[in-house]
Design a protein that fits this description.
The protein has eleven helices and 15 strands. It has 323 residues and is α/β, with parallel strands linked by helices. The chain has one domain: UDP-N-acetylmuramoyl-L-alanine:D-glutamate ligase, CATH 3.40.1190.20. Strands 6-4-1-10-11-12-13-14-15 form a nine-stranded mixed β-sheet, sandwiched between helices.
């Protein structure tokens, strides 16, 4: 039995942190580089595995040499890849992620010809595999994903969705998810023109979902908003840290929230915990190198201090060119 199966796209990230993004025909100083696996649910499930000792799997497709790196990185984190399908003749995406320390900005450049990544199709769905999980972790509402959700729900499991960018298909299927965590980008698009009514907007959004669903919106540097078990509104500020790279911050938040739920935390406590995990991640390059352990997060929440001993060992590991 799996505690969670993550389903979705995975990619291969080449992360670069610049002191300041150079202009045309200018040179720029590189602060850090890293080669890491990426993808919303892919990085999210790595965070879950780092924070709670359980059984996890990634259910997706990959291809080529970069696909092998992606699968190996899952294995490094103890994540089952037995149902990760290798698509012949296809290549996993190579995504160049550039962070600018001077302004906190970031840019993503999928490299041609790797502009699409192999994904699961309807014929790839294995019902017997999906029946073995407590949670399904998704980031879209593609037909194959909706079929997987149906199977999981029929067998008593629950579904968490990472709604990063505004997605009409996710909105149409809002009742299919049990834990819904949209991003700031989703919030500002959906509530354009009346963004400041946080409580009213959140309760209106919750009314569109399953009545028992957990709903939280992450708002970047403005923290987060959510509804607790009693449908009471709460808002939490973002943690103040020395940000190096925000790549994967939302992915890691979702994975941390799932780990917190598996640990039995209430909604507000889980949200604060996840916010701390995401903040610590942002102090290092890429989506995965800076993901802390549970003990590191606990110490940070108690003292405000971050123990980088093990984190920086991971940073050094991911700095080595793998190909």
């Amino acid at each position: 039995m799996f505690d969670a199966i993550a389903m979705g796209m995975s990619c291969f990230d080449f992360g670069i942190v610049m002191e300041k993004m150079p202009g045309f025909n200018e040179n720029g100083k590189v602060v850090s580089v890293s080669w890491q696996g990426g993808g919303k649910t892919a990085t999210g499930i790595v965070a879950t595995a780092r924070l709670f000792d359980g059984n996890y799997a990634f259910y997706g497709a990959c291809g080529g040499q970069m696909g092998e790196f992606i699968a190996n990185d899952f294995t490094r984190h103890g994540i089952d890849v037995s149902h990760m399908i290798r698509k012949e003749g296809q290549n996993s995406v190579l995504d160049v992620c550039i962070a600018d320390r001077s302004n906190g900005g970031r840019s993503f450049c999928p490299c041609a010809p790797f502009t699409t990544s192999p994904v699961l199709d309807m014929e790839d769905i294995d019902p017997e595999f999906l029946k073995q999980t407590r949670y399904l972790f998704v980031a879209d509402a593609r037909p194959a994903t909706l079929e997987a959700i149906r199977i999981v729900h029929e067998n008593g499991g629950k579904v968490i969705v990472d709604a990063d960018s505004y997605n009409e298909d996710i909105l149409k299927n809002l009742k299919s998810y049990d834990i819904i965590i949209p991003s700031e980008f989703f919030y500002r698009t959906h509530f354009k023109g009346h963004e400041e009514d946080y409580e009213g907007n959140l309760k209106a959004f919750k009314a569109l979902a399953n009545p028992d669903a957990t709903v939280i919106f992450t708002l970047g540097e403005n923290g987060l908003i959510g509804l607790d078990e009693n449908n009471e509104f709460f808002r939490l500020p973002a943690f103040k840290v020395d940000v190096m790279d925000t790549t994967g911050a939302g992915d890691v938040f979702h994975g941390a929230f799932l780990a917190a739920v598996l640990r039995g935390m209430d909604i507000k406590t889980a949200a604060r915990f996840s916010s701390a995990v995401s903040a610590i991640k942002c102090t290092r390059v890429g989506g995965r190198a800076g993901i802390p352990t549970y003990d590191v997060v606990s110490r940070f929440l108690e003292t405000g201090e971050i123990d980088y001993t093990e984190i920086d060992q991971r940073v050094a590991m991911y700095a080595q060119m793998p190909l």
